[in-house]
C-alpha cells in the first residue's frame, strides 16, 4: 500500500479521497489554484501546494506541474478524482514515465474508452449490444447528414470525447442538423479540446442504467450491481439510485456480465462504469467512464464497501477484496446533486458566498459529501456543485421518504440552488411509482418548475418577527452599553401608555409590496398580513437565525437570514426571498428600461447574431454566451430594433453587464 498520494482534483471528490486515505493511514498532498487557497480540501490534506491561477487550464489541467509537485513531495501515486485529468491518457502516460502510479486504468483503456466512436467499434466486436448509429472518423457534414438519414430521425448528436452532457444535441428533423452539429462541435472543442462527433438513434423513453465494474491486475473482474441515473436535465444526472428499480434479476445479471466483458475487452484495471440505455427489455452500450463516478456513494451504501479503498488497493497491486459470488447488496439508496443554479432560469449556474450552509445531520441513513463550508464562495471558475446528499434505507419507499425529509432540512442561503427542484422530483407521484426515463424532467416540467407563487403568509410573518426581534436585540444592546442593567427600558417590549402599540413593515415580494403589521400583546404578538385577520404569536424566540414560535396555533420553525435589506426565509424546505422596502433603492433599480439585455452570469461571448439597426421578433436569438462550458442563448424579450451591441465574439463578460440594447417596438 502507498504511504503518500497526491489528489489531482478539488472540491468534494478531493475531500472524499482524503477521508479514505486518512482512515488507511496514507498521507495526502492537495494541489490547488490561487482561488482555492483556503478551500476545504486544502485544509484537510497533510500537505498542499499551489499550482497556478484560477482558470483550470492554468492550474488543475497542468499535468506537468502536478507531476512535479508529486515528485517534490514524495507522493507515490496520483488519484485524479473525476473530471480534469481523470480520463486523460496523456497524463496517465506521463505518470508512468515519471514512475508515479496513476490510480486509474491502463493508458490504452483510457484512450479507447475515451473515444465514444472507437469504444463502440470495440464493443461491437465484443458482442456488447449497441444503439444503431454512426461512429466513423469521417466528420464532414455531408457524411454526417447522410448517416443521420440512414439512422432515421430523431438522432442524437454527441461529442466523441468527454461526457456530462456537453457537446450533445437532440435533432428531430433534417433542417435542424446543421445548427446542432455546429453547436455540439463548439461545445466539445471548448470542453474536451477536440470536436469529433458521433450519431445515435434517439430512443423515445429509455432508462439510463449503469454498471459499476472493478478489475485488478491479476485478471479478476466483478460488477458491483447497477445504478439508475435516468432523471437528467440537459443530459446531466440529477438524482441517482441503486439498485435500479423494477428490473428483472436475470436482466441485472446479463447487464453486469456484459459490463465486465466490456471492461475485459480493453484489459481494464480499477474502477469503471459501463453505461447502458434500457428500453422495452433491451439494453444498449453507450459509453464507459474510466474513472470513479460522481454517483459512486449509492453503490457504497447498498454494498457497504469503500470504492476509493478498492481503488487504492488495486492500484498498489493487490487483488480485488471480493469475488463476484461474495458480493451482496442490501436496501436502497438515492443521491441528489445540490447545485448552485437557478432551475427557473434554465438551470443557469449561480455564484456567490454561502452565507448559511447547514446540511441535515449525518447518520447511518444520511450522508453528505461536500467540498465547501459556510462562508465559502461558489465562483465562476469551477463546477457549481455544493454537495451530494446520499440517503439509504431498507427499501425504496423508505429511502425516498428520507430523501424528502433531508432535502427539506438542507439550508443554503447566499446563492440560488436547486434544492426545491430536487424536493419536487422526490415528491412527484410518477417518481415514486418508478415511471422514470431520461425524459422525466421535461415531461413533468410544469409540475417540477411551477411559476413562482406569492410568498406564503407564514413566511412573511416569520420575516417580520425576525426583523422585529433583531431590532429589539440591537436596541437592548445599545441601551445596555449606556444604561443601568436594571433599567425598565431594557425590556424594549413595545409597551406604550394609554394606547395600543404596533409595528408596520413593508416587504417586497418580487415587484409586489406586502404589508405586515405586528401588534404587541402581553403574552406575545399578533401578526396581520396584507390587512388580513391577525394571527396570534406566542413563545417566540430567535437564535442563530432560527425563529421558533407558535403561530396561529401551529408550532413553526423558520430560518431567517438577513443580508442588508434582503431576507431569505426557509420553512419546511421552501425558500422565500423578500426585501425590506426602500423606495430610493427600488427607484434606482427601475432605471434603464426593459430593453437592456444583461449577462445572466459571467462567461464568454461565443457569437453575436445581430447588428445595430437590425429588427428582430420576440424570442429571436441575439447572442450566444458560454458559461461553465455550456452555451446559453440571449433572446429578444419582445419585438424591436437592436440599437447597441456592446461586446464581440471572444469577449469576457461579467454578470449583470449590458450585452445589447433593444428598442422595444410600441404595441
From TrEMBL:
EC numbers: 6.4.1.4
Domain Lipoyl-binding: start-end pairs: 588-663
CDD domains: biotinyl_domain
Alphabetic keyword roster: ATP-binding, Biotin, Ligase, Nucleotide-binding
Domain ATP-grasp stretches: 120-316
Cofactor or coenzyme needed: biotin
Positions of the Biotin carboxylation domain: 1-446
MF (Gene Ontology): methylcrotonoyl-CoA carboxylase activity
PANTHER family associated with the record: CARBOXYLASE:PYRUVATE/ACETYL-COA/PROPIONYL-COA CARBOXYLASE, METHYLCROTONOYL-COA CARBOXYLASE SUBUNIT ALPHA, MITOCHONDRIAL-RELATED
Name of the protein: 3-methylcrotonyl-CoA carboxylase alpha subunit
Organism per entry: Azospirillum picis
